[in-house]
Structure formats: structure tokens, C-alpha cells
């Protein structure tokens, strides 16, 4: 069944999504779980194309409680968040696997980092082209257009394709 540009498989009542089902949005995000009267209702999860997931209890399309887990397994906590804050700048993979030896930098949570297309920035969930103001995922599929605030933040803080990186070369 096609609904609002997405795809649905599961139960229906009077032509509306009902019961257990799976709904894939045009962006590639997929909802799996309970539906009632065409809305997310009950236990269900959103699976994002970047590998993240949001498990929640929904009421009439609105999450009432839930938990987001990043693709690398890090669970988001809205209170007492200690990951990559002003005091501890380590990536989650460094927390789990330990730091690299002195002189070897880890530039992103992914190691080795993705190669950034020329003229673009790595904004964490994909690549940003400042000329078109388009963000694509790491498989180069469209994610979103950047507004002025996101554009400024990316230009100010994100890794650029033309940044020079020096790789560690062990002594022979």
C-alpha cells in the first residue's frame, strides 16, 4: 500500500493503517510497530538510514517516551550526557576501544574517516556542499537542505575536504 509518498505493509481497517505494520517514508526512514487509525500508536521504532533508531511508546502519532540509539550503539541521554562535551572530547569509539597512541589523531567517530568529496564538508550524518546547500548521506542520497543556521554551523565547525591530515607512519 502506498501512503503519502511512502510504502506500507501491514493491517488496515477502513483503508487506514491499523495493527502491526511497517511504513517506509520517502526519506528511507522506516517505522515498525503498532498503528491505530493511520497513526503510530503503541510500541514501535523508527529506523533511520544512517543506522540510528528511536524506540518509543506512541500515542496518536506522538512519542510519549522513547530512547534514541546512534548507529554505533551509543544511547542518547537527555540528562547527564557525558559524550563529547566540553570536558571530554573523545569519540564514542575511543571511549569503547581506547585512545590511539600519541601522535595519531582520530578525526571522526568512524576510523578511518570517510573521504569527503571535493569542496564539501563532513557534517556528521553526511556531506554538505556549501554551493548548493544540500546535505547528502554517506551513500550520496539526499538528506536535506541546510538552513542559514546549519550552514553557518557546518562552515564554522565541520571537517573540510581540503583539510590537510597527516597520517602516522611507523618507523621501519
Keywords:
172 residues; mainly beta; seven-stranded antiparallel sheet; five-stranded antiparallel sheet; 2 helices
Descriptive notes:
- The mean pLDDT is 85.
- The protein has helices at 92-97, 148-157; strands spanning 2-3, 6-13, 16-24, 30-36, 39-47, 53-59, 62-69, 121-122, 127-129, 134-136, 142-145, 159-160.
- It contains two helices and twelve strands, in the order βββββββαββββαβ.
- By secondary structure, the protein is mainly beta.
- The protein has a seven-stranded antiparallel β-sheet, with no helix packed on it.
- A hairpin with a 5-residue loop joins strand 3 (16-24) and strand 4.
- The longest helix is centred in the C-terminal third of the chain and has 10 residues, at 148-157.
Count of helical regions: 2
Which whole number gives the mean pLDDT? 85
Q: Indicate the percent of residues in helices.
A: under 10%
Order of helices and strands: EEEEEEEHEEEEHE
Main structural class: mainly beta
Low-confidence stretches: none
Give the amount of beta strand, in percent. 35-45%
Radius of gyration computed on alpha carbons: 20 Å
The quaternary structure here is: single chain
General form: globular
Order of strands across the main sheet = 1-2-3-4-5-6-7
Amino acid at each position: 500500500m502506498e501512503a503519502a509518498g511512502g510504502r506500507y505493509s501491514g493491517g488496515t481497517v477502513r483503508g487506514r493503517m491499523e495493527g502491526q505494520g511497517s511504513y517506509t517514508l520517502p526519506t528511507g526512514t522506516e517505522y515498525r510497530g503498532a498503528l491505530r487509525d493511520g497513526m503510530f500508536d503503541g510500541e514501535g521504532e523508527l529506523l533511520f538510514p544512517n543506522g540510528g533508531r528511536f524506540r518509543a511508546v506512541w500515542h496518536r502519532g506522538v512519542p510519549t517516551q522513547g530512547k534514541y540509539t546512534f548507529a554505533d550503539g551509543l544511547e542518547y541521554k537527555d540528562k547527564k550526557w557525558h559524550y563529547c562535551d566540553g570536558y571530554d572530547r573523545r569519540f564514542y569509539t575511543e571511549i569503547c576501544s581506547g585512545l590511539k597512541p600519541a601522535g595519531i589523531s582520530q578525526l571522526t567517530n568512524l576510523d578511518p574517516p570517510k573521504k569527503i568529496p571535493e569542496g564539501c564538508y563532513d557534517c556528521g550524518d553526511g556531506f554538505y556542499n556549501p554551493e548548493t546547500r544540500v546535505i547528502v548521506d554517506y551513500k550520496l542520497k539526499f538528506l536535506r537542505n541546510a538552513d542559514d543556521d546549519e550552514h553557518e554551523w557546518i562552515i564554522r565547525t565541520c571537517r573540510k575536504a581540503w583539510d590537510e591530515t597527516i597520517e602516522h607512519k611507523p618507523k621501519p
